[in-house]
Design brief:
Layout lengths: L13 E4 L6 H6 L8 E4 L17 E6 L16 E4 L3 H10 L3 E3 L2 H31 L8 H13 L2 H4 L3 H4 L2 H10 L2 H18 L6
Parallel strand pairs: 1-2, 2-3, 4-5
Antiparallel strand pairs: 3-4
Helix pairs in contact: 7-8
Length: about 210
């Protein structure tokens, strides 16, 4: 936001706080009182209660369900935007960005954020492990692209729960153990943990 010592919020209609989640509480606590300003943050995990109700009577959240990448403009026409707060201007601002605006309370937004981490950040981590395993086999990671594309297509065309397949879904413990023995320690640990969770759901009697 620049030099806060030179910033006068009373001269500003709307302030959007777009910083790391952990930094928001301390940053908000350092802000001067400004009853006429609409204060918004963009976090999925930080609640609306980070704003003191007396100090910030006009407050809210604009949470875009998307990873923001430097140099890449989001596809706002297809991007869900979740809002919270009673000020009517929040929805108006949201609709200026995206046609897909929905109200969501802090707990539900935190769950959506967690779901986004599961399907984006954690999946990217799994892909990074896959890249390493392919490299260890002397192969290019991009050879997995057709499989990755079909997997995403199946997940989006129905229920990922019903689309789940593989040795753990079938209860093929022999294959699972062979896989674990062929992997490096980090990949083997992750493979074993996730595979046992799948077995617990579909074949609770089986242990690796």
């Amino acid at each position: 936001m620049g030099n806060m010592a030179e910033f006068d919020p009373s001269e500003t209609d709307v302030v959007i706080i777009a910083i790391t989640d952990d930094a928001i509480p301390g940053f908000v606590a350092s802000l001067p009182e400004s009853p006429s300003t609409l204060w918004l943050h963009t976090s999925g995990s930080v609640g609306l209660d980070v704003f003191d109700t007396e100090k910030f009577p006009r407050r809210g959240v604009l949470y875009p369900l998307q990873t923001m990448l430097k140099g890449k403009t989001p596809d706002w026409d297809n991007l869900p935007l979740f809002i919270e707060g009673s000020d009517p201007e929040i929805e108006s601002l949201g609709l200026m960005l995206s046609p897909k605006v929905a109200r969501l309370d802090s707990l539900s937004r935190r769950r959506v954020h967690a779901a986004a981490v599961l399907c984006c950040n954690l999946v990217m981590y799994l892909w990074s492990l896959s890249e390493r395993v392919m490299h260890d086999a002397g192969l290019d990671f991009k050879m997995l692209q057709p499989l990755m594309e079909l997997t995403l297509e199946r997940a989006l065309s129905g229920s990922p729960d019903k689309a789940l397949t593989g040795p753990a879904r079938r209860g093929d413990v022999g294959t699972i153990r062979k896989h674990i023995s062929a992997l490096d320690p980090e990949a083997a640990e992750v493979y074993k943990l996730l595979t046992q969770n799948i077995l617990n759901r579909f074949h609770p009697e089986l242990k690796i």
